[in-house]
Design a protein that fits this description.
The protein has about 625 residues and is α/β, with parallel strands linked by helices. Helices cover about 55% and strands about 10% of the residues. It has a six-stranded mixed beta sheet with strand order 6-8-9-10-7-11, sandwiched between helices. Strands 1-4-3-2-5 form a five-stranded mixed beta sheet. The chain is elongated, with a radius of gyration of 42 Å.
């Protein structure tokens, strides 16, 4: 409770005041300026009149004694001017200008008395009676004193005012962090400039039509989309597609990351959302692009942070509230649509959900062609590399082309060839070659048999192997590069079992040739275990069939069955390698001599393989745990 009173409530009140100031800042600054000018003017007048430069009437009011002067000073509080005219006479001028003749003070005007008078704000000119030389204070000196006093106060006000302004600007500037591309800086990219993604481009064209001519939808009685949510894996071109929409419609482009909405101060994120939409309404037609919207658009739960909920509520209100959003298109991107709040996905808000997937073979060729246009000379076969880059995103393909150009530059060539793409592909997948790490002969032999085992099982399963290498790259001591003949979108039960065979081929080769195994197969075992769990639990490839269990006892059963799948694949891999032991030994010897072998060299050794068929999957009349 004490923390709430001492910290949270004052902070909320402060932020509420800053929010009110932000909404009425022009009026606030005007009133603050008037107040400061009035205060300084009053201070200037007080100092000048106190010094006697301004006479407010100036009439001589008569004579008073020293004791009566003391009483008058008490009533005046401060100020005035005492001019000593002789040894026993003086003239006192009130701040208002009234003049009094002071006489008969005898020895009462001592140094101590003078110091007291000065401390009370009285300016004294000369004192012959107490050995102080009469000093004539000019009007210029008095003005200088007054100005110095005013400048001191102005400097004080300016210093602390600057601190307050900077803090205020820091607290309220989060809503102005968006990137604005308008006028001549509007995006120049068009929809046709985006390679691939024909389906996604077709979906977003109606947004372009709406921004070009909003009345088109009104004439047919249709409502335009409230927003477009682009979702898909990272690097597939969601941001590029949003910029292309703005460029095609010749609209202002406002871009902001959703993570910048969430602030430490309550209400700052919601204010940022409102400012973004206010700016969009001033620059119609306009495209608002919110990247990684799951940072604020995630599902609202009781454990969510209050600032997160305020940001989300502000976004919901701005997208489908009382404000007129005609001529504004809201586009957002996320990699995790499954965590999005249902309030954002309902009609009227993000009612267009456009999937931007990893590019297929034809899309990859188109993307490679676009990025290869900047190369001065290219003799590489891009169609081949479109086939061999399955699973690459658009960003990966752009990086591949750039790395190939870097490899050509390292070799001192302007021409980019296939070997440059090969080195670039290996660098992208596994990292740069580690020249500083040289494995021992024993380790090289283990790695050579391990990679050869993968290659043999791949060929035995009916696949292709493009390259086998035992050169260290990244964290791997070797690699086997497989090529898929057909790009499959669905996987069958037999294909999963064949993948398990290939993953177990490395460990099986170590067991057959050395009678022991190494830790080099740790990653293979992890992948195989995960694949077997997915096959049983998600795909229903086991006797459990289409039932997806959720109970903990059934999950234990899945683990036992997945272990059976992996063990069965390992036993078949050991038998297959034993049946082709001599061919694998010849391949390994050649690999140890040359470090890397291409597809043709591999097929010289691995042909007419003896394939051990996979046994049928076990059927369970009772859970495995009960049978065991």
């Amino acid at each position: 409770m004490s923390i709430d009173i001492l910290y949270k409530r004052p902070l909320k009140l402060l932020w509420s005041f800053l929010g009110w100031w932000e909404r009425h800042q022009k009026m606030c600054w005007v009133f603050l300026g008037i107040f400061l000018v009035a205060w300084l003017a009053y201070d200037l007048g007080r100092v000048v009149t106190r010094a006697g430069l301004i006479s407010m009437g100036g009439a001589n009011q008569g004579a008073i004694t020293m004791s009566e002067l003391d009483d008058k000073l008490k009533s005046l509080s401060r100020g005035g001017r005492l001019i000593i005219t002789g040894e026993n006479s003086a003239r006192f001028i009130e701040p208002g200008g009234s003049t009094w003749e002071v006489g008969d003070f005898g020895d009462q005007l001592t140094r101590t008395r003078l110091r007291a008078l000065r401390g009370n704000g009285v300016l004294i000119e000369g004192d012959a009676a107490v050995d102080i030389k009469p000093v004539k204070v000019s009007s210029g000196d008095l003005v200088a004193v007054a100005l110095l006093d005013i400048l001191t106060k102005a400097a004080f006000i300016g210093f602390y005012g600057l601190i307050v302004f900077l803090v205020f600007r820091m607290l309220t500037s989060s809503g102005k962090r968006f990137k604005k591309l308008s006028g001549d800086r509007r995006p120049k990219i068009k929809i046709q400039d985006v390679a691939g993604h024909a389906g996604a481009k077709r979906e977003v064209m109606e947004i372009v039509d709406y921004l070009r001519d909003p009345s088109k939808f009104d004439r047919s009685g249709a409502k335009p989309p409230g927003g477009v949510l682009l979702f898909g894996p990272p690097g597939t071109g969601k941001t590029l597609l949003a910029k292309a929409i703005a460029g095609e419609a010749d609209a202002t482009f406002l871009a902001q990351s959703a993570s910048s909405f969430v602030q430490i101060y309550a209400g700052a994120g919601a204010q940022s959302v409102r400012k973004l939409f206010e700016e969009a309404r001033k620059n119609r037609p306009c495209v608002i692009f919110i990247d990684e919207i799951d940072a604020v658009g995630g599902t609202r739960t009781t454990m969510a942070h209050s600032e997160h909920i305020q940001c989300l509520n502000a976004l919901l209100e701005e997208m489908d509230g009382v404000e007129d959003n005609s001529g504004i298109a809201v586009i957002a991107a996320t990699n995790r649509i499954e965590v999005m709040d249902e309030g954002l996905l309902r009609p009227g808000r993000f009612d267009r959900k456009v999937h931007v997937p990893l590019p297929g073979r034809d899309d990859r060729l188109e993307i490679l062609t676009v990025h290869a246009k900047r190369l001065p000379r290219l003799t590489a076969d891009l169609a081949r590399w479109a086939d061999q880059t399955r699973g690459f995103s658009g960003a990966d393909l752009a990086n591949l082309v750039n790395e190939a150009a870097v490899e050509a530059a390292r070799a001192g060539r302007q021409e980019v060839v296939d070997s440059d793409f090969t080195l670039a592909r290996d660098r992208v997948l596994l990292g740069a070659r580690d020249h500083g790490r040289t494995p021992s002969d024993r380790d090289r032999e283990f790695v050579a048999y391990h990679e050869s085992g993968h290659a043999l099982m791949r060929l035995a399963a009916g696949g292709r192997v493009e390259k086998v290498s035992i050169l260290p790259r990244g964290g791997a001591l070797g690699m086997t590069v497989a090529v898929d003949e057909i790009e499959r979108l669905l996987v069958t039960q037999d294909e999963v079992r064949q993948q398990l065979l290939v993953l177990m081929g490395g460990r099986a080769a170590e067991q057959v040739f050395f009678g022991t195994v190494t830790g080099g197969a740790a990653d293979d075992m992890e992948k195989a275990s995960h694949l077997a769990r997915e096959a049983i639990h998600r795909y229903g490839f086991d006797a459990l069939g289409p039932y997806v269990p959720k109970h903990d006892s059934m999950l234990k059963e899945i683990e036992l069955r997945a272990a059976t799948w992996v063990k069965q694949a390992y036993e078949v891999a050991v038998k297959t390698i034993s049946e082709n032991k001599q061919q694998l030994a010849d391949l390994t010897k050649d690999l140890l001599d040359r470090d890397e072998l291409g597809e043709e060299d591999i097929l010289v050794h691995l042909h007419d393989l003896k394939v051990v068929p996979l046994p049928p999957l076990p059927t369970y009349s009772a859970p495995v745990s009960e049978k065991e």
